[in-house]
What does this fold into?
Amino acid sequence: MTATNNKTRLLVHGVSGRMGQALLRLARERDDMEVVAAVSRAQPGQRVVDGVPQFSAKELHGVPAFDVAIDFSLPAGLATILGLCTQRRAALVSGTTGIDDALRAQMKEASAHLPILWAANFSLGVAVLSELVERAAAALPGWDCDIVESHHVHKLDAPSGTALALGASAEQGGATPRYASVRAGDIVGEHLVQFTGLGERVELNHRATDRDVFARGALHAAARLPGRPPGLYRLRDLLS
Ligand code: NAD
It folds into this structure.
């Protein structure tokens, strides 16, 4: 940490979005961090809101010094903030989903120079679900594995990043998952992983009812990532 008042200096990227707003509100409740820049795609209506300087994506390179950026935007936004964090040697926490192999490779490359944590889901419950899915898949060879994810109508990518991460856990256990997506109303995020055998079915379900769980997880990670050696981190590496 390099801030003089011992607070972690935070940049929030994608601040006008649903997650950005939750991050800003919850960061304000913490006394170990200070939001020094809030960045949205469009030109901000006001230069300073509640003491936080606002910037547009075009002005990104003019933001003040920061220790860690939290990004919940779109893949193009993640690519841009990754570039800035690399240039400034600042840490990066991102939950942006829908990213492709090329962007994944860029993150891997950048992680030689800075600590990066990307997670498809920042909730503790999903971290546990992921372990249960792998165990169930290993214990139920030959069963059908289906992942059904449901989200609000504004979500752009499908299947969700969380569904794909749960699918990777199922594959680790030897299953071959299939995916189905539901886009309806204001659903925050639901994931059902279903194992079906002959005459029986196991259902593992997670429901997020409040997106604050993701924002809290991301802030928790952002408080712990700066100052760590360069590399790619997982949420569970920073849980304690
Ligand atoms: P949203 O549409 O409400 O907000 C997206 C924000 O990103 C907007 O403020 C937009 O202006 C900004 N943005 C888009 N492109 C940008 C760019 N090029 N540069 C700067 N800013 C840019 O979306 P949301 O619901 O807040 O979700 C954002 C992302 O986070 C999505 O990919 C979503 O799937 C993901 N998400 C992840 C988790 C998790 O736990 N990992 C949880 C919820 C949402």
Summary: The mean pLDDT is 95. Residues 13-14, 16-20, 39-41, 57, 72-74, 76-77, 80, 95-98, 119-122, 155, 211, 214 surround nicotinamide-adenine-dinucleotide (CB under 6 Å). The helical segments are 18-28, 75-88, 101-110, 124-139, 161-172, 212-224.
